[in-house]
Design a protein that fits this description.
The complex is a heterodimer.
Chain A lengths: L6 H28 L4 H9 L18 H14 L1 H20 L2 H12 L6 E3 L15 E5 L2 E12 L6 E8 L5 E7 L5 E3 L13 E12 L3 E2 L6 H36 L1 E2 L2 E2 L4 H29 L4 H30 L9 H9 L9 H13 L1
Parallel strand pairs in A: 1-4, 2-4
Antiparallel strand pairs in A: 2-3, 3-7, 4-5, 5-8, 6-7, 9-10
Chain B lengths: L1 E6 L1 E3 L5 E3 L2 E3 L5 E3 L1 H17 L2 E8 L3 H4 L1 H5 L4 E6 L8 H12 L5 E7 L10 H9 L3 E11 L2 E7 L4 E7 L2 E5 L11 H7 L4 E4 L34 H10 L6
Parallel strand pairs in B: 1-6, 1-8, 6-7, 7-13, 8-12, 9-12
Antiparallel strand pairs in B: 2-5, 3-4, 9-10, 10-11
The chains are: A alpha+beta, B alpha/beta.
């Protein structure tokens, strides 16, 4: 058991922190107000290889491993969750192609995605269903060498960026969920404006409208009628990024609280001298430590997962703890700031809105607990 | 031509905490000194324009083999290191002697770059000492460097003017922190850093005799104490009078 970072991992962590501090921090408020990450920030992240960080070199990735990916993403999210969300959702779709794609699909879709020229999406949720694969209504009808895809997808991150989309639809023969790769903005593809949401501004969630999208049969991802492993594994891999975003929020809540406690005075003394504040700081620190080791561990497990179901359980377990810790840490941080914590001028108000997103997105907390319980009691 | 950049590993200042008015170094990783990174970036930019090979040279304890990956990720092509576990807090004259002895082993040295001062002690002595030992001319406070053939054109910043100098290489140049903004290495550059060529020398590999105590001990490192005057000002006229009384106006 070794809980220390390699020099390379420490440098990757530092690289992401420096980029975030030097570049993202300057536009964090702009991202917040405009709900969009500036193009130059995405280009900068691409130049640092963050869009293909954990992907194999053979397909244009940096092959740095998911553990290093968590380290980098945490530092990006510490400054702004928007850019981290873009990369996280992109990596979820890209991992599905990497794990289930044919050699030809990987060669076609992965290199431009790893370079950040294409930004990937993963689309399962629909207006009528969240986590239940049997309830999806999108359809894929075989027509010679093609499938005709119809349906609506909801809350799809990055749907408004060009790139590939991993999408789930019921095949017309077996009526079972099947995964496909669609080029976004092909004929028949359209998107809504990004939803205006409580937190995670800059990570665009859109609805997707698919009207008679004509897809070559070679764009089937995995096996016909067997989309569930793609979904289960994909969502589990997505939690690596989700965890990193929540972890970055927790770290920021910790740093902001320590800074404020040392600066804010009451009757001539910094409030850090009061035990009521000290207990709160200790609580955030403990939550951060718990979260980060779980997040790093999931990254390590993702480098060589034993089985999709084992990994799904580990991912679900870590997500519950890390998302709930982020919420609790942000709440404590607001408490430490008192009334100032409610003001938009103070970063902790943004952290509070960001933290509340985690337990709801990419699988609600209760669903994660059912996955964990199901694995234990099976 | 080899462009050589001399770098010093220093404790990461961002991670030092102060306890009982003393810096706590436990668990603090080493990094490359901040202005040394400017020197490295200057070397990378010159190599991109003029070609050549960029070599990082450094002296330090065993941690240096890891620390130097930061320079190799930042654009150095290879590294030459003098490593000994006794080289933790050596004083400037010993650093200079060791660096110069290592640099003598490198062929075709054209430009030898330093940061104006190290990230920890900032003695600012090592570049001058190395230049003296090697018999190279030295130019300090460089804000711009251009190379043309065997000539270097250096702009140096003085207190109230800029000076442009031309010098035949080899030459030692120490750079200011505002000469450039060091680039942030990518993940791929970081991962490839450990695979770049690295020559490790021990004290026995150098033609050098070291005598006496090689370390320097910092007894105290405190900022000067300051106190506010607490002068109450009710009007602009009061402010002007107070500033005059303190000698800040009408000097």
């Amino acid at each position: 058991m070794n809980f220390t970072l390699t020099k390379e991992q420490a440098l990757i962590q530092k690289m992401a922190r420096e980029f975030a501090d030097q570049n993202i921090a300057l536009v964090a408020e702009q991202i917040e107000q405009q709900n969009e990450v500036p193009r130059e920030i995405l280009q900068g992240l691409a130049e640092l290889d963050l869009f293909g960080m954990a992907m194999p070199e053979a397909y244009g990735g940096a092959d740095a491993g998911y553990d290093s990916y968590v380290l980098a993403m945490e530092q990006i999210a510490r400054v702004s969750s928007g850019p981290a969300m873009v990369v996280s959702a992109h990596s979820l779709g890209l991992a599905a192609i990497s794990n289930f794609g044919t050699e030809a699909q990987k060669q076609k879709y992965m290199p431009p995605a790893c370079r950040g020229e294409h930004i990937t999406s993963f689309a399962f949720t629909e207006p009528g269903t969240g986590s239940d694969p049997k309830q999806i209504n999108s359809t894929a009808v075989r027509d010679g060498d093609h499938y005709i895809i119809n349906g609506t997808k909801r809350f799809i991150t990055n749907a408004n960026y060009p790139g590939s989309l991993v999408v789930f639809a019921k095949d017309s023969q077996g009526g079972k969920p099947t995964a496909f790769i669609v080029d976004k903005f092909c004929e028949g593809y359209s998107v809504s404006e990004p939803w205006k949401k409580l937190g995670w501004h800059g990570g665009p969630l859109c609805d997707i409208y698919m009207q008679n999208i004509k897809l070559p049969v070679e764009n089937l991802l995995g096996e016909l009628g067997n989309g569930y492993p793609v979904l289960q594994y994909g969502i589990a891999f997505g939690k690596i990024g989700m965890n990193s975003v929540a972890l970055g929020t927790t770290l920021a809540a910790f740093e902001e609280s320590v800074k404020y406690a040392k600066e804010k005075t009451h009757r001539g003394d910094p409030i850090a001298k009061f035990q009521a504040i000290q207990l709160k700081i200790a609580d955030i620190a403990m939550k951060y430590e718990t979260s980060r080791w779980l997040a790093y561990r999931l990254g390590v497990l993702a480098n060589n997962p034993k089985s999709p179901s084992d990994f799904a359980r580990e991912a679900a377990l870590s997500k519950v703890v890390i998302a709930e810790n982020a919420m609790a840490a942000a709440r404590i941080a607001v408490d430490i700031h008192g009334s100032y914590g409610l003001m938009e001028d103070y970063k902790v108000s943004r952290l509070y809105r960001d933290a509340i997103m985690g337990p709801q997105v990419e699988g609600v907390i209760d669903m994660q607990k059912l996955i964990v319980a199901g694995a234990i009691l099976a | 031509m080899n462009i050589v950049v001399a770098l010093k590993q220093v404790p990461d200042l961002q991670q030092i905490r102060i306890r009982n008015r003393q810096p706590v170094f436990d668990g603090v990783p080493y990094t490359i000194g901040s202005i040394d990174k400017n020197a490295l970036e200057a070397g990378v930019q010159l190599k991109e324009v003029s070609g050549g090979n960029l070599m990082a040279v450094s002296v330090g304890n065993e941690e240096l083999e890891d620390t130097i990956k930061e320079a190799l990720a930042g654009g150095a092509d290879e590294a030459c290191l003098v490593i000994d576990d006794k080289f933790a807090d050596i004083e400037s004259s010993i650093s200079a002697a060791l660096l110069a002895a290592a640099i003598k082993k490198i062929d075709d040295v054209g430009l030898l770059l330093f940061g104006e001062g190290s990230g920890d002690n900032y003695s600012g002595q090592v570049s001058s000492r190395v230049a003296e030992i090697l018999g190279f001319p030295q130019i300090g406070y460089a804000s711009q460097i251009e190379l043309e053939g065997q000539t270097a054109r250096i702009t140096r910043v003085l207190e109230d003017s800029e000076e442009v100098l031309e010098v035949r290489m080899p030459v030692v140049v120490s750079v200011l922190s505002d000469i450039n903004k060091p680039r942030i290495p990518s993940v791929t550059q970081i991962l490839k850093a450990g695979r770049k060529p690295k020559k490790v020398l021990g004290i026995d590999d150098l033609e050098i005799e070291l005598s006496g105590d090689r370390t320097i001990t910092t007894l105290s490192s405190l900022a000067p104490e300051t106190d506010r005057q607490r002068i109450a000002i009710k009007s602009a006229a009061d402010l002007i009078s107070a500033l005059r009384a303190e000698g800040f106006l009408g000097r």
